[in-house]
């Protein structure tokens, strides 16, 4: 049997359940899925709007008030939007604090006389109301404490009260004595301080004299050290110059002795290599002898050519005579 559920609510707002029996349709043996969705088949109750979800123990309260008017809702929305726009415009027109420098930031500081907790500013409206004028308040009477206890009285004989001239004498003696003692202590302290200052002044003068003497001795020692270093440097310079002079004298003597034999040899070598020559001899060797050799060569060449021509002529004549002799035979 199939069950069709129906959910309803009672007058108290609770859900009630009721169903009626229905016959179950016949299905195949192997539970084949139907070809189409029929009204009699089961569906997914998770998507059924009639099934209530959530805590079923909580009482569902049905609102009894009617729905708000859409026009009124739109008007309230417009009013709220205009208030936000006016607030934003006031914030833009309000003078603001300058931007913080780089590396710093602004912090809200309470400047009132009494500290109070800062909270969000609530938008408030001013409403006026006519009231009666204030009546004059009467003056506050003086406070007189209530009387308590019992009144008593005492008999005071003559001389029992405080005699200032007689009672103040020991007090004055003590005060004057302490004052004089304090003054003497202060005077002694001043004299001791003066003695200490004098001793300190004398000690400072002695120390300054000793420091001046030490400085003078240091300066004298410095001058002696500089003089000694200067004398040593001068002596070293003199020794260096003497050594250089000795080396120069030895080098001059060696050079003179070496050049005594070198000079004739050099002149002889230069003369033998032709650096020192006779102009006539040089002219003969450079100009005349080459010209003479050229002329001799030319003359010998001409002579050789003439001999060669003569040999050819003689050879030709001999050949002709031999031919003639052969012909005559």
Question: How would you sum up this structure, described in words?
Answer:
By secondary structure, the protein is mainly alpha-helical. Helix content is 56%, strand content 5%. The chain is built from three helices and two strands; from the N terminus they run ββααα. It has helices at residues 70-93, 164-272, 279-328; strands at 2-9, 15-22. Strands 1-2 form a two-stranded antiparallel sheet. Strand 1 and strand 2 (15-22) form a beta hairpin. It is flat and about 210 Å long. The model is unreliable at 1-7 and 36-40 (pLDDT under 50).
- The percent range for helix content is 55-70%
Largest sheet: 2 strands, antiparallel
Average pLDDT figure: 79
Number of helix segments? 3
Strand content: under 5%
Based on CA atoms alone, the radius of gyration comes out at 75 Å
Region (Disordered): 1-43
Subcellular location: Cytoplasm, Cytoskeleton, Flagellum axoneme
InterPro entries: Radial_spoke_3
Protein name: Radial spoke head 3
Structure characteristics:
329 residues, mainly alpha, two-stranded antiparallel ribbon, 2 strands, flat, disordered N terminus, cilium, Radial spoke head 3
Strand and helix map with partners:
Elements: E1 2-9, E2 15-22, H1 70-93, H2 164-272, H3 279-328
Antiparallel strand pairs: 1-2
Biased composition (Basic and acidic residues): 22-34
Family: Belongs to the flagellar radial spoke RSP3 family.
Protein name: Radial spoke head 3
